[in-house]
Design a protein that fits this description.
The complex is a heterodimer of chains A (241) and B (226).
Chain A lengths: L5 H22 L13 H28 L2 H33 L8 H14 L1 H6 L4 H29 L17 H42 L17
Chain B lengths: L2 H20 L3 H18 L7 H22 L2 H5 L2 H7 L5 H30 L6 H26 L5 H12 L1 H14 L10 H27 L2
Helix pairs in contact in B: 1-6, 2-3, 2-6, 3-6, 3-7, 3-9, 6-7, 7-8, 7-9, 7-10, 9-10
Amino acid sequence: MYGKGLRPLSIATVVGIAAALSLVFFYAPLDADQGFIQKIFYLHVPLAITALVGFIVGGVFAIAHLRSGNRKWDAYSYVSIHMSVIFGVAVLITGSIWAKASWGHWWVWDEPTLVSFLIVFLMYATYYPFRYAIEDPERQARYASVFAVTAGAFVPLNFMAVRMAQSLVHPRVFATANGGLPGSMMFTFLVCLAATALLWVTLVKLELTAKSTSGQLKRLRRALDAPAPGGGGSRIAPEVS
Amino acid sequence: MTPSRTAYLTILAKDLRAELRTLQSLPAMALFATTTFVIFRFGLDRTELSGSLAAGVLWATLLFAALLGVNRLFVAEREEGGFDAIRLAPIDRSALFAAKATALFAYLAVLELVVVPIFALFFLGSAAALGPLVAVLLLADLGLAATGTLISSMAVHSRARDLLGPLVLLPLVVPLMIAATGASEPLLAAGGPGYHRFGSWLAVLSLYDLIFLLLGWAVFDFLLED
């Protein structure tokens, strides 16, 4: 039942990404200061925004799980955080490439957004060992939800603390989104953001579908009294009914 | 007295009495911190510290010493069946959170009472910074007590509890450490204590404390269900 709507969603994502990439390379003007390398901005920033929103969404699903006790929400929360961690790896890599190209170093400590993102990423990276170490599935789901809520509250607090820790404000290469960005760049950026968000939603839905299918398969096997090959399923990931 | 308050006071008194009789956590934490200072003396090859270096050494040491206390916080409850007793008792479960956080706060305060003068003796030229430093220490302890209690109560039910507590707690307290070192750095500056952005750092510490105390209070019920 999770598979419903996956096909149109995937098609929309492919169209969205194709449109976004063609806008990036054929429509958006070259940046006067940085030239071609600035184009990574259209990949890096939407990925970062999507990942952060995904972490918060995971926290909201976790609240739904704690309030209702329905394990479905825990699976949603797990998949949201999982996908955002994967997006987070891409954010750190693209950020690193961009930093190397524009500042000459692979890592810069005085760029507060990048440092905050690293700390948030490290926080969510502990979600997996944490979840994995709790054996009872009921308790695992509950504790993982508490983790997701706590970490969700931590995200804005961390951004605030890191930004305050900068003794001098680093010159911003780009003015903030609604500041000095020319209209054509802004439009391209928004299309890229929408395409990335669509990609996130599609991948979350795909993983939920895969999990629910393998859960069904496992139940059918059990009904037939045939053991699953390879011991069946991951021990970390929640099951979806 | 409401039943919750009675439960809170009873659990807190039990914890403090148990610590006083067994001395399981505090001496170890103080010894650990003192030895860490000695290691920093050679690691940094400095006999006197000031400014950001002093703040960094002090807070890194206090944080790691605090982890020792956090790890042991719920071990007795787990091993002696205290969690089951709390679950059976007709009391508000949040009383356990409040009592444990207060106990951890008390451990940290006692630890700092011993260890911060030692730090001043080892590394600081004068003790002038210690007065205003108390405010930073108390606010940071409150935040550590809130997050430490929350994470410890979850980690104690896992397979790798000694590993998991510090692993999850460290990234969670990064904002707290940023604010604590930010406030301490001008206090410990070489030319006598300064108060650059002292107020705003204290505000960040208070905000952190408030958020995680409320959060711990709100979610603790879910951690005890079974």
